[in-house]
What we know:
By secondary structure, the protein is α/β, with parallel strands linked by helices. It is built from 9 helices and 5 strands; from the N terminus they run H-E-H-H-E-H-H-E-H-E-H-E-H-H. It has helices spanning 2-18, 29-32, 36-46, 63-69, 71-78, 94-114, 133-146, 154-165, 180-194, and strands spanning 20-27, 50-57, 83-86, 117-121, 150-152. The chain has a 5-stranded parallel beta sheet with strand order 2-1-3-4-5, with helices on both faces. Strand 4, helix 7 and strand 5 (150-152) form a beta-alpha-beta unit. Helix 6 (94-114) packs parallel to helix 7 (133-146). The two termini are 31 Å apart.
Amino acid sequence: MRYTLFVIFIGFAISLTAQTTKVLFVGNSLTYTNNLPSLVEEEAKSRGVKVKTLTIAFPNYAIIDHWNDGEVQKYIKSEKYDFVVIQQGPSSQSEGRRMLIEDGSLFQKLCDQSGSKLVYFMVWPSQTYYHTFEGVIKNHRDAAKQNGAILCPVGEAWKVYFESTDDYSLYGTDGFHPSPKGSRLAAEVIVDTLFKNE
Length: 198
């Protein structure tokens, strides 16, 4: 009897370690610059978590553009993703806020139907519009709360870093897209958020 229980326990442990978390990234150049999804896979692996990502990202796309294309719906319906991570631009102004909340609700309903968890990837403003940072943070926080979604507060982590170091090297040469260092920090925050109980 003890032997049987032991075998069952070992089999259970093996199945847990073999599990792979599937993550769908939906965004624009802030997601595909430096191949952020692959950095998320690497960061998760370093913590003993297996992650497989798929990315749908195009230049200058808002989340409603992805929705209107109709491809993202096919992916979410055809395969069970544990997390669907949506990323828009800074969205500090009223129109951007509306898009985060209202357009995000479309993804939330679809995720509810497919058993996925919706995740907002909070970004950051360009250096030129640094003064809008608080608006970026607030609008992402409100959108996640209103849609019952998970929030990956990458933008907040960037702001904390800037204010504590006076070092803006998280930005790339154009003052908006992330440097490799900025994308690595983003990956750390995303993994911290999605797997905080691992």
